[in-house]
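Researcher: Go.
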Amino acid sequence: MFNWMDRFFGLQENDTTVKREMTAGLIGFFTVVYIIAVNALILSEAGMPLEAAIVATIVASVFGCLLMGFWGNAPILLVPGMGINALFSYTMVQSMGLSWQEALAVVFVSGVIFVAVAFTRFAKMLSAAVPHSLKEAITVGLGLFLMLIGLEKGGIVERGTSSILALGSLADAHVLATVLTVIIAVVLFIRNVPGNFLITIVVGTIIAAFFGLIDLGSMNESSINAAEAFAVFGALSFGNILSTTFWVAVFSLTMVLVFENIGLVHGQVAFIERPEKFSRAFQATSVSAMTSGIFGTSPTVATVESAAGMTAGGRTGLTSITAGLLFLIASFFIPVIKLIPDSAIAPILIIIGFLMLQNIKNLDMKDMSESFPALLIVALIPFTYSIADGIAIGFIMYPILKIAVGRGREVSPTLYVIASLFLANFIFHYLG
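Model: Structure:
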């Protein structure tokens, strides 16, 4: 069996082992398992039954991770994306007036377009059109975003009264538990202790329990009602497909899906120094996003937390397959998983974000026409809490500055088109 795995996944070629891959998958799963509850709650804001949204999130995650493992052979986890789920519920449904069934149809149609891009020459053309500085900036911006999410989850930073952000109080047990867990996590990581992230999660959970932060009574909550479990499966509606609203939603979602995932997948395969995995990983991402509409959830993406498994040694699709199977098993243990506190997960996100931030050394700071748009992306992804908006503004600014310094020919025609589309989308949403 191990010989088959070695041949199929190329374990020796990728300098890894079955044990390391499965451990990495376990780590990656625990860092992103929060998506089951969080995504379902956001989808419920669109009117979806909560229990059905939980099942849809799990099913989409299982399918996405298995598809990435077997087709993309990359340690990338595909789960419903944060930010895109907010676009689904708050923009497409609450603001634009689509029903959640129609919004699922938008997800499917956008996914079909995404697949058409990923399986044709358009994928390489679009990837080639994006300058190296902007690709690196997306990775750095995602790292900073991940650090911010970790700091917020741990309560180390919070919304300020006289500033945007402020330090949390060490008098708060949650903050103190996070700080102690961060110290342990960093020491374990620096000393390169095997399974350091998994140890962090276990120790962090114990610390949280010591501070009385874990409610064991939540394990007695009722299980999912089987009658409603699949209420959103195949519920997409094309009744509004001829309306302008429907196609504006398709355009917005497609732009986010294609360019967010180009940045995410490129950054992740670069992180493991396997750029040749980009094409098939990107294709797997597109198919998974398309099927999300059928399963009944907002689109899956190459989640930022995939870097947790990569940092733990994951190099092949066996990592994502392991995580996918754990999502399947998780459907039987949702109350137990919910016991893992944010204070045990936050330190891992902070460390991963720090590692991704190191890519900033690859930016050419001497050339302002390259560095300024890149640094805009780095700053605006976390500050706007939107990967899509951060990318869009950087893409718009890049050709503007190149033209301003008389180097407009350095910008590919494709990037001019992309920037124009992003600009048109901003004008429509914010000025229209």
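Model: DSSP finds 19 helices and four strands in the chain.
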